[in-house]
Structures are given as structure tokens and as C-alpha cells.
Amino acid sequence: MWMTPGKNQSWVSEFILLGFSSDPTTNSILFTVFLLIYLSSVMGNGLIIMLICMDTQLHTPMYFFLCILSLLDMCYVTTTMPQMLVHLLAKSQTISFAGCWLQMYVFGALGITECIFFVVMAYDRYVAICHPLRYTVILNWGLCIMLAAGTWFCGFFFSLLHTFFTMSLPYCGPNRVNHYFCEGPSVRSLACMDTHIIEMVDLVMSVFVVVTPICLIVASYIHIVKAILKIKSTQARCKAFSTCASHLTVVTFFYGPATYIYMRPNSSYSPERDKQISLFYNAFTALLNPVVYSLRNKDIKRAFLKVTGHSRVD
């Protein structure tokens, strides 16, 4: 469908999301697989939120931040997966221009928020290991709430800029987006004008929301490693490394694909590869988080056993 703002110009009023395949049998298989991934992600992260809220022993800054990360992941995967599941079975894969605008904005806002939030979690580990005796004094609840609120504000602000610049481009056809959701680079490739300036704006924003957080996380862990190496007890040293391993694992799997998608030139755009990479950092990272944090965390295990009627973790 098209809307005509002027006498000699037409703009698209909706986009067609091509998804992964046009074969019904393949789509049925993908539907089952992605439904299981989505439900597992939502239930896994939901379980972590429930356990942290119910167990008073988990009411600490570290688990407060973990609770917010799980909430982010639940919302993040829900912005794309349900629609993709519907499109896998439906005959129509269209999304309105306004719907695309909204999906791009919310997806970007949650993604950027998570990017910045990983810095907060790294700072939490830095304070816990480098200044253990002052941990609760430095990371008081007032500061924790301010840090969390600040990351959400930055995420929604930067995403607004990204979405506004991308969706303000003229789209006069074609309107077939070779993706399973309205991701910025995929939609921008359909613009009927040179997008070089918009790419540069996106690159500058990426420095603030991707490169800067990565640098801060690396700086935090350099101090953390120095502090851990000074610990004389091997058991205490291993325990300190273990508390950071979960965070580093999730950070690596999230930042790697996201950096590739948003910090490479539009000329190297590859639809099929980008869809797979986006699926990884969107769906699989959200699924990975509860697995990593629960399997490696005795406090989460203890809280789960307590809720289910058991009293100890072996």
C-alpha cells in the first residue's frame, strides 16, 4: 500500500517483513523452534525476577540489577518474537509504517538500555571485589535506583534519535524488508535517497552506546583482575572470578553481534547474515541469561529450592 503526499511522489504506508522462509513446511518447523525459545526465555527470566522478589536474602544491589536485566530481556524478546511467530503461520507479513516505527523504537530503546546497563553491572562487580567492606555504603539503594533509571532514560532517548532519523527518510518503494522485524539498517536500506549522513549519525551514536560502555566495562575488569590477583587464598580467588564469569559471558554474546550490526557501513549490508546475527543477540541472549546466572549461582539455586519446598543446595 502507498500514501501520496504530493503530486509526483508516493510513500509506503506499510512494510512487508520477508522473515526467514517462504516455504510453509519450513515455517512450521521454525514456528515450533522459535516458540520454544521464546517461552523458555520469558519463563526463565520471569522465574529469576520472581525468586529475587520473593527471597529477602536476594535483596541486594547485585540481584536488584540482575532482576532489571531479566526484565529487560523479557521485554526485549517480546518486541520481536510474537510478531515473528504470527508471520510464520499467517499469509500476510505486513506491518504498518507506524507499527514499524514503534517496533524499531522500543526494540532500540531496550537494546541500548541493556548496552548501558551492562556497565552498571560491571561497576557493581568492581565495587564488590575492589571495595568489599564499603559495598553497601557505596552502592546504596538511592544510587542503585538512580543508575537503573539513568540507563532507561539514555536508552529511550538515544533510540528516539535513531528511530526518528531512520523513519524520517523517504520510502517510496520497494517496501519489502528482508528481515523478521523492523531493524534500523534493514529498513534504512530501502530509503530512496542517499543515507550516508544518517549512517554517520548512527555511527556517532554507536560510539556513545556501544564503544564507550565496552571501554568502561574493560576498565572495570582490569581493576577487578588486579584486585583478584592480590588475593592470597586460591579458593577465594576462584570464587571472585566465578562471580564475574556470568557477567562477562553475557556481555560477550550481546556486544559481539550488536557491534557488528550497528557499527559497520551500509555497503556491507547482508540481509541473510544480518537476520541470523540479530536473532542470536535478540532471542538467544535472552535465553542464555537465565541459564548462565542460575546454573552458576548458588543463591539463585537456594532460592528456587526454598520456593519449591526444599531447604538446601548440595
From TrEMBL:
Record InterPro entries: GPCR_Rhodpsn, GPCR_Rhodpsn_7TM, Olfact_rcpt, OR1330-like_7tmA
Chief localisation class: membrane
Annotated signal sequence range: none
Cellular localisation: Cell membrane
Membrane topology of the entry: Multi-pass membrane protein
Entry keywords, A to Z: Cell membrane, Membrane, Olfaction, Receptor, Sensory transduction, Transducer, Transmembrane, Transmembrane helix
Entry protein name: Olfactory receptor 2A12-like
